[in-house]
Amino acid sequence: MKKGLIEDGHQVVLMSDGNNWHNxxxxxxxxxDMRWGKLSGLKxxxxxxxxxxxxxxxxxxxxxxxxxxxxxxxxxxxLISFLKRHNRYMVKGCFGDDPVVLDSQAEGVPxxxxxxxxxxxxxxxxxxxxxxxxxMVPVRHCSGFANRESDAxxxxxxxxxxxxxxxxxxxxxxYIPLPIEIxxxxxxxxxxxxxxxxxxxxIQPKRDYLKxxxxxxxxxxxxxxxxxxxIEVNTVEGVPYDEYCRMLxxxxxxxxxxxxxxxxxxxxxxxxxxxxxxxxxxxxFYKFIGEDELRPIINVRPGRDEDNLNTLRRTLTDRKxxxxxxxxxxxxxxxxxxxxxxxxxxxxLYERLLAGEFDIY
Length: 361
Fold this sequence. Notes:
By secondary structure, this protein is an alpha/beta fold.
């Protein structure tokens, strides 16, 4: 998104800790240096003090969640207050786990998630630590404070929008999709009848209970056995992001997430390269965005073993259908997720905030 805003003539400074192993690009590095031990937080504070001028006098400050700086909740609350006082408007992202999301999921919003399906809570034991963290008093106070103090909340996925919509009763909430930079020369896959279909299963070992890729991978393996020699399944774990992107370009089909309602960043990165995704593509989502034609995703759901298997049998053995979905994947990303288009949606929101139009939708 930063690139798109800069291309439109705006001045943007990105502060971040790099999001762990992703090591995302940033202008100001807030990563804790664990060589400092218990004093590693002091380095973060020093970085904030060094770049004080970047923290004040802005038209818009956007934070990605309630704990946007890798410090304790109390520090984040103080920083939210500071940013609110010394800048014109503050926007908060609804980009992942937080108490609102987990509370909504526990009530069946959306219809299914990694913590809920078939009308009841699921993965309870696996999610115990995660749920306990979300229920900690400092987390709840900081999360609620960030939501109240922000002038606008932006959900990057439809499921997050649903969660927050069930909690909000005013016009603070907006949906703006994830931005993707489409690789130059991206084109649909040509999947000739004479070659093997290449399927990639990417697993995060410590997080697969949140993703469900291993489960889908087992179903794909079953379909591969039923069609001996026609489907090649490659399962990888913990691959660096650059290497992963290279593998996506050489893959026909990516196994992504079982519990997702809509395509997330991983899915979209694959789709931008013409790789067909097995993951979240609910009709409810297509209706929400007003899409009547493109259906690029092989949609699977938790608790629907036989339905999922039949869906995979039908799609993975139909080369013409997969080629069509490959082209639609690129078309879908270009239509909804091109980083320049997404930047303009944020720009539109910022302009309306600056114009005093608080209840936009």
